[in-house]
Structures are given as C-alpha cells and as structure tokens.
Amino acid sequence: MAEHLTVVDHPLVQHKLTLMRDKGTSTAVFRQLLREISQLLAYEITRALPMTTKTIETPMTEMDAPVLAGKKLALVSILRAGNGLLDGVLELIPSARVGFVGLYRDEETLQPVQYYFKVPEGLDERLVIAVDPMLATGNSSVAAIDLLKKSGAKNIRFLCLLAAPEGVARMKDAHPDVPIVTAALDEKLNEIGYIVPGLGDAGDRMFGTK
Ligand code: URA
Ligand 1 test: best mutation among 168, 192, 195, most atoms within 8 Å of CB? Predict the structure, then answer.
C-alpha cells in the first residue's frame, strides 16, 4: 500500500456510513451495518496482499491457481470498540489469527495505559491489521501500534471507520509506515476529543451501553 491514508468512497460504504451516523439508528441496526461495512473496508485493506499459486485440478483440467502467500494474517482489535469491526473482518478472513490490545486513559497524565495484551505468535512474519472504529486523537492507536511493533510486527495496517485529521496527522508522525484505511475523513475533533460530525461513541452505539 503506497498511500498513507485511503478513504473508501464506494457508494455502498458511504450509504451504510450515513445510516450509522444517524442518531436514530438502533443498536441492532448499527451493529449489522458495522458488520457489513467492515467487510467492505477489509476488502480494500487486503487488496494488495502478496499472492502465489498452487496446482489444483478443476473438473476439467489441472491449473496453477492463485492463493494468498505467506503466514496467516493477524487481526488485532483495540478494545473495546475494535471488536465491532473485528467480527465482520473475521467473516471475510476466517483463518486470520486474532489479538487484543486493551488500553485505558490515565485521567491524570491523559496517557494511554495498557491493561490487556495478547497477540498471536510470529507477528514479525505476518501482515498485522489493527482495527479500531474511531481514529480520534490518535493517542490509543499510536500506543497500540507501539506495542505491536515491540512484539515484532513489521508490516502493520490500520483499519477504522472514521478518522479525524488530528488522528491521521498523529499517526503519520509516529508511524509513517502504517497505512490507514477508513470510510471517511471527518472535519475535526471537538473539545472533548469526539469526532465531528462523527457518529458519537462507537462503543456505546454498538453495544447499547448508553
Ligand atoms: N471514540 C468514539 O467512540 N467516538 C469519537 O467520536 C471519538 C472517539
């Protein structure tokens, strides 16, 4: 992937995103849309995966047919909202390995603190796709990718639903080697770090916690 930021402007993605942004959309519908949109975004983020061939026999003849090359890729969900994106991506790539990163914000230092970290072995040989619906300030995304790199990951991509310019800039500064795929680049962050126009709190909307 050459671009640092890819905005997927496919009509289906944009239509589903509008339904998700609408505050009148129920939790059940929001979750279903998230599942659908995450598959379309996953399609884009995996577009240039390395390929090889294997010899198979069709009912007609033998052929060298294309298959994905290398070790199974790793999906890493940044808790908790990442799990909403993870489900859909896993449906598309069922053999992917899965990891989780849990971070909370220390209210005094405002810095992300790790409370959970479990990732597949051999990260150095896998494509690692970190998933988190909202790239807002970028603080937790940058910290999660720091942790993945410390665990050996060398080929990382970041998948989100919405990005704020501030978060994209922060990621580009800290991790210029990590391409970002998103459904939209929104206008700005508000004073409490929410994306505007955004869709509100992604975790609350997908899990119905508010
Ligand atoms: N996290 C969210 O869930 N929503 C935002 O707008 C920003 C961060």
Answer: 195
pLDDT tens string, the chain, 210 residues long: the values are 668 999 999 999 999 999 999 999 999 999 999 999 999 999 999 998 999 999 999 999 999 999 999 889 999 999 999 999 999 999 999 999 999 999 987 777 778 899 999 999 999 999 999 999 999 999 999 999 999 999 999 999 999 999 999 999 999 999 999 999 999 999 999 999 999 999 999 999 999 998
The Cα 124–Cα 151 span in angstroms is: 8
Hey, what are 80's tokens? Answer: 């908790």
Q: State the catalytic residue, choosing from 106, 177, 204, 209.
A: 204
Ligand 1, CB within 6 Å, residue ranges: 81, 134, 136, 194-195, 198, 201-203
Which CATH architecture fits 5-49+70-207?
3-Layer(aba) Sandwich (3.40)
Q: Which two tokens stand for residue 163?
A: 């990005």
Asked if 87 and 131 count as a contact pair (C-beta separation under 8 A), the reply is no
